[in-house]
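User: I'm putting together a teaching handout on how multi-component assemblies are represented. Below are the sequence lines for each component of a complex, exactly as they appear in our records. Could you produce the 3D structure of the whole assembly as structure tokens, so the students can see both representations side by side? Please keep the chain order the same as the input.
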Amino acid sequence: MTGALLKRGWWILLLAILAGGTPARAAEGVAQAKEFFQTGVRYFNAGKLDQALEAFKKSVELNPRSAETYNNIGAIYHQFGMLDQAETNFQKARQLNPDYELGRYNLARLYLTLARQEYQEVLRLTHTPAREKEAHYYIGVLDQVLGEEGAGEATASSHAAPGGGAEEGRGGNSPRTPPAGAPPGALEAEEASGGNPVSREEIPERPALAPAPGGLAPGDTAATLFSQAKIAHANGDLPRAIGDYQRVARLRPDDAKVQYNLGSALFSNGQYDEALVAFDRSVAIDPDSGEVHHFRGATLEKLGRSDEAIAELKRSLALEESYKARWLLGVLYEKAGDYAAAVREFEAVAKAQPENKKIGDYLEEAKMILAMKGGGEHPAGPQPPADLQPAATGAPPVAGVQPPVDPERVAWLERWRQAWQARDLEKYMAFYSDAFAARGREEARSKKDWEVSQRKKFQRGVIQVGVADLRIEESKGLIVFSFVQDFRRGSYHDRGLKKLFVRDEGGNLKIVSEEWHRL
Amino acid sequence: MIWRLLGVVGGAVMAAGVVVSVGAAGEEGVAELLARSLRELDAGHLDVALTSVREALRVAPENPTAHNNAGVIFDRAGHHDVAARELKVAVQLRPDYEEAHYNLAHVYLELARQLQIDEEVE
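Assistant: Of course. Below is the structure of the complete assembly, with chains in the same order as your input.
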């Protein structure tokens, strides 16, 4: 430690000497830098951006380790529409202080502005309707995220005085800059007070990128095009993949594989009617592909033609065993209310995929419902965890009638909610069984894992947890609390369906598992 | 000043030399290298794909397609900042290069996304 400090001390001294003076002179330089910084803030607030920029530049010359100053220089360049310079300075701020929220915020907004600018170029250049539509979509989303129409133009018309300083800077496309009359330190204070950062969820998902062929070999156009289509498809660029597959299909009308891939891409893009046509063509060319029948079945299911989908999936399985097709068949049986058949299919999948945890959940749920409906015994198969197995005795509830909610159980759930919201780890963990394992979460396969994971999350700040639409069902010793959970932490918000699987352990209710699905 | 000027002139001469050599013998080779990089990218062999693109760039450093594809590979490898750099070069070399603008837009989106707080799913 001492050695490290000594080393650091040497660096400080060395930097001071390189800067042209002793440590005392360096300190003087920092003080002058602060003065220039404050001058820059005053100019900025007066709308004199050129002078503000000069002052901030002088400040950073004297104190090149100030992330705030680089941020402010970047912010002014952004307002001037000089986006490359803005990026350089925001990045410099980030290098100096990776935890500097204001710098990160401004850099993120700059990237969004640059993305918008590039989409506008795409719009100008493209002759492809799908690409044009996509660019319009992203520009629209980015305008919303950036907060005003014509965000790109607003950045370019930068010489307008910022007027209200930071307040104006927060709106629209402008980067955030020092608040009115703020001394240097006030930037941090302002940041700590909250601000309004763009949340991750506001930024649209992007499709994958488009590599370009280096040139097509003569006579191999269809093959290259097919390869390109597959790359686009694998990257999730569905409009491009579909367009390319269609072009290949015109060149190779008798290729079942091309029709199959086209159908798959259309399916993924939600174009189920068109997908069915492609799968029909593929089946007409090659009727013996189990995979194509599987996808055709999945498409029929999407189109609401469940009976045909079941028949098609059976056809697929007669040609070729596929746990995915069998899984879907089980789901369709479940939807049709045939839980016995669903359990049969899920058990077969679980047998083929013993490591797959999800199928265990499906199987367990189907079995539970079957048991609640008074269903009979089923062939032996892989069993769900002992904790989650319905007990051998106990009357199933009357189908279709919601049993009255037990106020004690509601109160127990409220105590759990309060312990979570208060981030009281000890109280919160007391609600969990030693045999706890969260479903579908690799990081929480045991109670200990869960505690470690939650401890970290509890440290991230104040949370609010809401519970609504509570249902409590019980089947043979296992109590399932289902409710809509509303979670908030700072600007983050999610809403999902939460299920707590609870059992009575010596007179105390304990959570043995839980799951959550976003709504 | 004179030294810097000479440096610029020297660079231009070198660049011109490369362009001539590609035009004379290397264009087909570059196309082949880029096609190979695409095949390797398709197969998920990013390192091999990158080697082919780098080779193409060595022969033709001002080939916008090569820079575009290098950007795609770096993006796929998770190096979005390097990807942006390559794609910027691609659009500087060919301002009407739609694919590169399109790719660059997406990389900027990704860079913005990376800067946001990584909230956990509750």
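A couple of points students might notice: The domain at 221-388 of chain A is CATH 1.25.40.10 (Serine Threonine Protein Phosphatase 5, Tetratricopeptide repeat). The mean pLDDT of chain A is 73.
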